[in-house]
Amino acid sequence: MLSRVFGAGRRSFSSLSEQEVLALAISSEEDDGRIYRAYADGLADRYPDSAKVFEEMAAEEDRHRAALIELHRRRFGETIPLIRREHVRGYYQRKPDWLVRPLGLETVRAQAELMEAAAARFYEQALTRTQDAGMRKLLGDLAAAEKGHEALAHELESEHLPTTVREREQADERRQFILTYVQPGLAGLMDGSVSTLAPIFAAAFATGDTWQTFLVGLSASVGAGISMGFTEAAHDDGKLSGRGSPLIRGLASGIMTALGGLGHALPYLIPDFWTATSIAAIVVFVELWVIAFIQNRYMETPFLRAAFQVVLGGSIVLAAGILIGSA
């Protein structure tokens, strides 16, 4: 572990020979081609036009790799040294596709731009550290090739992604984001914020004890979060509905449910009853307006209608809790 952190057992880029730099460039092109094909495979089902862009970028990486291999064959022979990015200290790294999943359109496009820009920048910086004519030419060619890749990405997007296609894919991505993250999270936030109002405020006014009220709120919030999370994950596997991973939806719903209840339970860590209750009431007010905002922003519910429904419902539950606790 320490050797990976401090770079022990790795060569510095400046110590590489021309053949080793060329071998490193070849392996880097191979890795980039694999990453682009993985992007294309991950996008193919939902975004076939964007997948074509990454397929062609992978093919371009293959052409550059073939040219580099031919250059190595002419200058150094058939045997290419096995040297990869992780063998060189300070060399730029690539994030494998499984670390950026789920593959969102903007995520992979931004990652592709970073990949090409980082490679070109690195070769340009390396170019300034050598006086050898052969090495300078090699690094300059590699930098130009990477810059060409960046320009190619924009050309391919213009070819395969006209405005109508891009807008359709962005609309599909937004819809998927809402179905997988926003909708379960919003349901959880509403349930956690509203359903825990009655037990928390009933406990507060029945006991007048802030610590006991906090324990009631904590248990209610955590219990509701676990229940909502399991319910969301178990009732729909996402295959027919297209709502995405049940694990992600379950986590979104469960976490937001727990947070919704904890928001007005945490103030009861304050020993003074009326101070804690006043802050909890303010938190409830903020929570309800946040819910209304999310409904308006993502679910396209008119803001005034969303606010009326949420605030009215929350106020009724809050009043019920206070009345029951005061009885």
Short description:
By secondary structure, the chain is mainly alpha-helical. It has helices at 2-6, 18-43, 48-76, 105-127, 133-160, 163-195, 197-207, 210-235, 246-265, 273-298, 303-326; strands spanning 11-12, 88-89.
Per-chain topology:
Layout: H1 2-6, E1 11-12, H2 18-43, H3 48-76, E2 88-89, H4 105-127, H5 133-160, H6 163-195, H7 197-207, H8 210-235, H9 246-265, H10 273-298, H11 303-326
Parallel strand pairs: 1-2
Helix pairs in contact: 2-3, 2-4, 2-5, 3-5, 4-5, 6-8, 6-9, 6-10, 6-11, 7-8, 7-11, 8-9, 9-10, 10-11
Task: Walk me through the structure.
- The protein has 327 residues and is an all-alpha fold.
- It folds into 2 domains: 2-160, Ferritin, core subunit, four-helix bundle (Ferritin), CATH 1.20.1260.10; 168-326, no CATH class.
- It is 77% helix and 1% strand.
- The chain contains 11 helices and 2 strands, in the order H-E-H-H-E-H-H-H-H-H-H-H-H.
- The chain has helices at 2-6, 18-43, 48-76, 105-127, 133-160, 163-195, 197-207, 210-235, 246-265, 273-298, 303-326, and strands at residues 11-12, 88-89.
- The protein has a two-stranded parallel sheet.
- The chain is elongated.
> Kindly, what is the distance between the CA atoms of the first and last residues, rounded to a whole number of angstroms?
62 Å
Mind summarizing the main beta sheet?
2 strands, parallel
Q: What count of structural domains? A: 2
Per CATH, the class of the largest domain reads Mainly Alpha
The CATH H-level superfamily of the largest domain is: Ferritin, core subunit, four-helix bundle
Mean pLDDT: 77
Number of helices in the DSSP assignment: 11
> Strand sequence of the main sheet, in spatial order?
1-2
User: Residue share in helices?
Assistant: over 70%
CATH architecture group name of the largest domain: Up-down Bundle
List low-pLDDT spans.
1-7
Query: So what's the oligomer here?
Result: single chain
| Strands, count | 2
The 3D shape can be described as elongated
CA radius of gyration: 28 Å
Structural class: mainly alpha
